[in-house]
Amino acid sequence: MEKKEKSSSYSHILKYMGVFGGVQGLGILIGLVRNKLIALILGPDGVGLISLFNSIIKLVSDFTNLGISTSAVRTISEHFDTGDERKISRSIVVIRSWSLLTAVLGMLVCVVFSQLLDSWTFSWGDHTLHIILLSPTVALMAVTGGEIAILKSTRQLRSLAVVSVYHFAGALVLSVPVICYWGEAGIVPSMFITALWQMFVAIRFSCRRYPFAVSFGKPVLREGGGMIRLGVAFVLAAVVGSASDFAIRSYLNNTGSLGVVGLYNAGYMMSIVYGGMIFSAMETDYFPRLAAINSVGKVLNDTVNRQIEASLLIIAPLLVVFMVGLPVIIPLLYSNAFMPVAGMMHAMILALYMRAIKLPLAYMPLARGDSLLYLVLESAYAVVVVALVVLFYDLWGLTGTGYAMLLTAVLDFVMLSFAMYRKYGFVFSRNVARYALLQVSAGLLSFAVTFIDTPWLYWLSGVAVVALSFSLSAWVLRSKANLVEQIRRRFFSH
Which intervals of the chain form a coiled coil (predicted)? Predict the structure, then answer.
């Protein structure tokens, strides 16, 4: 019976991490094509400008969204598991109403503080008007965040995957021609068009089950106030995280150059964002399931451990491929002008092993509603990462920023593990320890391969480590989730 439950659990996790669906992979592919075209059109300086504008948008959004998207998932997930449609519908009206209010707030904050944001971000030129023109994008993102939270918490995971693909496809078709025609002057309009498209798609899919309705009466505002009180610490944590990212990019821009920011952003995108896409798929399904667990104990412990096992086994072989394939991947995704970022990326890829293990832990305070603990942990991470990036960049340049990220990830893992043990009694399973030892060792071997100068020996050694990592994961997943049979049924049943 236990074996059956475990197999079922693994099958569920694998299904919703997009291992067999391919939808997430299609979205990633479209996104890669878009970024490749933008990199060729604008070069490192243009990519750096996009990075700074995105940092501003994220900072303002996190500051003004009042934690609605996070507290909404937790609130609706609880109602969804009880099957109370009346409470679900009521909560959705509350979330949509407050999302519109936060959209207006975000827009106003972006306009009012545009001059201040310009002085913090840029040491050259006057970009105040650009930041003011970014304000509608902030508003659109607030509305989209509410709709995405509704899709997540009501387990409309297939719709979420399709929304993701439509978003990437729309961003490619709508934004690239604008940037191609106007160059850097088209960056802000392309961001607005992309955000508008994403909001339209998210609303279209979420309204299929729950028609759009809002209310600004006192009862709705009062109910939303309860969610906001829960989300205040989450807002502060998100702001701290966005501020740290904003501070790093502004520091690199003012100390180095816009080109350095562009290189940093490319490395960050390729490793943390693209390399971490599997984590996004994990969060979509995992967080609502975790939020629905009402007590601390074996069920919570097992859920988190199985998520760590599956995440590590799935992403580890991909990280080895990424590490070994960088000499081909960087020119393919961007251009040869971005090759100086390789050293930084080697360290960032190693940091993703830590992220695979610690991210399921990081969601525990969110799911339990322990917002203060979440704020403390996120704030500690933000302070450490900014301090180390500044220090390591001064010592070793752009490559040093990657090792700063790696060291921060290790320290964060230690801190999270201790905190989750003390707060929830969480203990890593033997399987997690075993798989981590094997796959992290393979990752370190792939890192060692990057120091080989002889091409034929480099690729021979790299392929051997890739085969080792894939074999380890395939062997475990085959026994845990009957992987081979699932693949056979999906691709050869017709």
Answer: none
